[in-house]
Write a structure and sequence with these properties.
single chain, 254 residues, mainly beta, twelve-stranded antiparallel beta barrel, 9% helix
Amino acid sequence: MKKIGTFLLLLLGMTSYSQENEQEKNNMFLDDFRGTASITHNGVSLVPSFSLGDPALLFDLKFIKKKFSFEPDMRFSLEGKPWTMLFWFRYKAMENKKFSLRLGAHPGLNFRTVNIIRNGQSEALLESRRYLGAEVVPKYQITNKIGVGMYYLYGRGFDEGVKETNFLVFNLSFNQIALSNSLFLNFTPQVYYLTSDELTGYYTSGFLTIAKKNCPFSLTGVINKGISTQILPDDDFTWSILLNYSFLSKKRKI
């Protein structure tokens, strides 16, 4: 309960900061600012087959100027230890009623705890590993609620660990599906191909979000199942539930 209370205080602090500085931001160079904070019992990576295996806090921020955006994606354990930090620079290369194309790149850090012996005593240290990544994201909107898309991510590691990653996703998206006058859901099933150096894997996963109109809170369920994989961890089935809090600029509706 203490950790959840701390999380709620963080949300209130970010909301207050956003509201107090909204007028100032509107007068600055940014066109928009928004973000999402989430708490989950099992932190899920950008690649759904990888998870922290423990409760986590996730922060996704967006600073937008015309077709460009800077989007920090930061994930922490509930003890406050960093897990991953990705600093995305994204560009909307094409966007119309039916088709959109996004390009992006990021420097990133992945953290892990390692044990060393110092002065004859075991000591835990937090180690960071550096990565660079690039993405290509085309999407075609079939109707105003149904879309089909692809996501490709290439990652390059510079320290001990995985040196090269390829992540190729094909997905469908069902958005703003009404459950009642105020409740709606978004559903994204997908299949993907993953390589980790010389190892390969095929997976299926899905994301289901239930939200209420004009409410900043939502619930997201994530499931992931390996079809055929050589990559560890090779759990046959993983899942996660996230409580999300979205804070938007006054230019956008929840």
